[in-house]
Write a structure and sequence with these properties.
The structure is a single chain. This protein is α/β, with parallel strands linked by helices. It has one domain (44-282): TIM Barrel. The chain contains eleven helices and nine strands. It has an eight-stranded mixed barrel with strand order 1-2-4-5-6-7-8-9, surrounded by four helices. Strand 5, helix 6 (167-179) and strand 6 (183-189) form a beta-alpha-beta unit. Helix 4 (96-116) runs parallel beside helix 5. The longest helix has 25 residues, at 2-26. It is globular. The protein starts with a helix and ends with a helix.
């Protein structure tokens, strides 16, 4: 009995020590430190979610029009860490631009390999509005020049818009991008405070409808998306429905007039060689 009791106490202590070690590793300051180290050491993975023209998509055999580059992080002890957790960490700690520059570099190199193999496809990368106050735009322009891709093949997605009074500060940077043939997209419309009026102020090429609207079947959501589509016709924008996960989502996006779509029903994020295989199979 005495030996059994001691053994159980040891098991409890070992479990407590493991729990405390995990708590220490997952604390915000230490996780942020590990993420910063991973970015500096280029240890993030980049995957690519296909984007399809909705008029053309019929099945998994359909060819994508473009892909969106997405970052993934596998922590040495924790395993996969969700972007919904590590992206805000990078933003709060002030190195999100470093992370996005890394994704831009990796995705640009992959984009070049696809095109050298004869695959015509567009590439989208994400950027925070705060990037446009620094030299991020110059970095994008350098990449665009090196890629020598057709106008519109590279798209920068603004992940959120700043307050209206700060939007004019971005305008010059966005004009520089568009003048160089880089398309500008506003991501996640409907998830925050962005209005159609705010979209009208900016020189843009695309609006992406947030998954929360794509998956809603109510009349209010219909009206919002159709208003964006109607304004897109006048402004020459492309409208992309995000978060298409069911056949109903797909039909709803088509009925609302969206031009392109992405989501798990159409195609999950793939590594670069997975996209290459998809392109070879569908072209």
């Amino acid at each position: 009995m005495h030996y059994t009791h001691i053994s159980r106490v040891c098991e409890v202590l070992r479990a407590s020590a493991s729990w405390l070690n995990l708590e220490r590793m997952t604390s915000t300051p230490l996780l942020t430190h590990d993420l910063r180290s991973a970015v500096a050491g280029r240890r993030l993975e980049v995957v690519y979610q296909p984007i399809f023209a909705l008029d053309d998509w019929a099945s998994s055999a359909s060819a994508p029009s473009a892909v969106e580059a997405l970052s993934r992080w596998k922590h040495a002890a924790m395993g996969d860490v969700s972007p919904t957790r590590f992206i805000p960490l990078a933003q709060r700690a002030g190195f999100l631009e470093d992370l996005d520059r890394l994704v831009l570099a990796v995705a640009s190199a992959q984009f070049t390999r696809w095109r050298r193999s004869g695959h015509e496809i567009g590439l989208s990368v994400n950027a925070s509005p705060t990037h446009f106050a620094g030299d991020y735009v110059s970095a994008v322009l350098e990449r665009a020049e090196a890629l020598a891709a057709p106008p519109g093949a590279l798209t920068v997605e603004i992940i959120e818009l700043p307050p209206p009074q700060l939007i004019p500060d971005m305008e010059g940077a966005l004009v520089r991008l568009r003048d160089a043939g880089v398309a500008v997209s506003v991501d996640d419309f409907g998830a925050g405070d962005t209005t159609i009026g705010m979209l009208d102020i900016l020189p843009i090429d695309e609006v992406k409808i947030d998954r929360s609207l794509t998956q809603r079947a109510d009349a209010a959501a219909d009206d919002i998306v159709r208003s964006v589509v109607e304004r897109a016709r006048a402004g020459g924008w492309r409208v992309v429905a995000e978060g298409i996960e069911t056949a109903a989502d797909l039909q709803r996006a088509r009925d609302r007039g969206c031009h392109r779509g992405q989501g798990f029903l159409l195609g999950r994020p793939l590594p670069g060689d997975g996209v290459a295989r998809m392109l070879a199979r569908t072209e």
